[in-house]
Amino acid sequence: MTIVVDASVIFAWQFPDEDGGRVEPIVRSIPRRGCLVPSHWHAEIANGFALAVRRNRMSAAYRDGALHSLTQLPIEVDRESSLALWSDVQRLCDASGLTAYDAGYLELALRHGLALATLDRQLARAAAARSVELLGLSPP
User: Fold this and answer.
1) What sign results for the dihedral spanned by CA atoms 123, 2, 39, 72?
2) pTM above the 0.70 mark?
3) What are the structural domains, with CATH classification, of the chain?
4) CB 76 within 8 A of CB 102
5) 3-state helix vs strand vs coil in the chain, percent to 5
6) How far apart are the first and last CA of the chain?
7) pLDDT tens digit string along 113-132?
């Protein structure tokens, strides 16, 4: 079954100074399961990597390799997620205090009935409260 993977999982997997071992099994399952992401995902990943280079958390060469490795994964962008930003995503923001970015992942998982992988505590709590399956990452 396809999964929704948020940026926190990708960053933990790719940043040299984070414990990627926690998320390695999830990322390794993407070729087999597939991955669906909201329309803002590429911009969020690009911004996180740009900031990591600027803050010397990784080199530009490492970033380029990480971005290339992501292009090798079967990651599908949900084209309807941008339409939900002004409706369902806003309602999730109001109800849970999530950012629109994080609520976008939750909305996507809810709409498609998919499991969600995240390291974000607030997102995990909001997902658990709505009975969304969390992959190997339990809410605090």
Assistant:
1) positive
2) yes
3) 3-135 (3.40.50.1010)
4) no
5) 60, 10, 30
6) 25
7) 999 999 999 999 999 999 99
